[in-house]
Design goal:
With about 325 residues, the chain is mainly alpha-helical. About 75% of the residues lie in helices and about 0% in strands. It contains 13 helices and two strands, in the order H-H-H-H-H-H-H-H-H-H-H-E-E-H-H. The protein has a two-stranded antiparallel sheet with strand order 1-2. Helix 2 crosses helix 7, helix 9 (about 155-180) packs across helix 10 and helix 12 packs antiparallel against helix 13. The relative contact order is 0.10.
Length: about 325
């Protein structure tokens, strides 16, 4: 019983009282650079909102349907911007965090203390994730405008923000894994963006195979891989998957998927920072095997859900068959 209690206390300390996270948080807020960047970001979003609102007012009297359509288009534009922001900012914040520690020769000093690679990586992850969440929180007054005026509902907005936060976590963990095996900051940044853009291209292609983005039936049921693309969260946030007869929101399923993949990336980074055949390496191998099986199942599901297309005019009827 004492062993379980010690394990729980150590893990709670890693996530809630992480020294690396506190140090990086102080470094991020030291000076005026972060405040200025957040201010510019907020001014851009407010300017976009004013432009869309003035355009709508300039149209004169419009019907309720047209006004709601304008608000929905504005909301989609904001979500596209937030998805692109997560794609660009989250990898950049974590891409050089480990390799810079290696260049400063501070990793040996850190690991000479009773600090495990897990604590270091979780601290870097929290500091990156916290900064990205600040960008999402700052955009809430803009998206709240659509809710107040009737363009969206709070449930849709919160589901979209949950998806964006899970994407930020996934991209940050990917960047940490690449940073752990890189030798130079420039190389880590380049390889991180190559990996992020490759994942974005593949995930967007997989998400679009569901057909829910162009469906006019109004159905919200669809596979959870509709949520894989960060720029399509506005459509995927309202979808659900029926599991054992129970509709489960896809943002919850994607959250489970993102946590699992994040664990895989962090274990890979911890394995790169640990000695050969360490417990981190063994856990990484087991998690990698399980992830391979899950990805194979998802890929098979995508292939099976695609309907075969036949050229018009070449389909034989029953009466034409010999």
């Amino acid at each position: 019983m004492a062993t379980v209690k010690d394990w729980a206390n150590s893990n709670i300390g890693i996530y809630l009282d992480n020294a690396t996270s506190r140090r990086d948080f102080r470094a991020q807020l030291r000076g005026n650079r972060s405040i200025m960047l957040w201010g510019i970001y907020l001014v851009v979003l407010i300017g976009l909102g004013m432009v869309v609102y003035s355009t709508s007012v300039a149209q004169g009297s419009v019907s309720v349907v047209e006004a709601q359509g304008t608000l929905q288009s504005f909301y989609q534009t904001v979500m596209y911007i937030l998805g692109a922001t997560v794609l660009l900012v989250a990898p950049a914040l974590a891409a050089t965090s480990i390799v810079i520690e290696r260049e400063r020769r501070s990793l040996d000093l850190i690991f000479s203390a009773p600090v495990k690679p897990k604590a270091l990586l979780v601290g870097k992850m929290i500091s990156t994730y916290r900064y990205t969440w600040m960008l999402l929180v700052l955009s809430l007054p803009i998206t709240a405008l659509c809710v107040v005026l009737g363009g969206q509902t709070w449930s849709q907005v919160l589901a979209s923000y949950a998806l964006l936060s899970f994407h930020a976590m996934l991209y940050s963990s990917m960047a940490l894994a690449i940073s752990a095996v890189s030798k130079k900051p420039v190389g880590a940044l380049i390889y991180t963006y190559l990996g992020a853009l490759t994942y974005f291209w593949l995930s967007t292609g997989i998400a679009e195979t569901t057909g829910i983005f162009s469906s006019a039936s109004g159905s919200t049921e669809g596979p959870f891989w509709a949520t894989l693309s960060p720029v399509e969260v506005v459509h995927a946030a309202v979808t659900h998957t029926t599991v054992a007869g129970v509709p489960v929101p896809n943002w919850i399923l994607f959250g489970i998927f993102a946590v699992f993949v994040t664990r895989l990336f962090l274990l890979g980074a911890a394995s790169a920072l640990s000695p050969y055949d360490s417990p981190e390496t063994k856990n990484f191998r087991i998690t990698g095997l399980v992830t391979t099986v899950l990805v194979s199942l998802v890929t098979c599901g995508v292939v099976l859900t695609q309907e075969p297309s036949y050229p018009s005019g070449n389909v034989a009827t029953v009466s034409q068959l010999p």
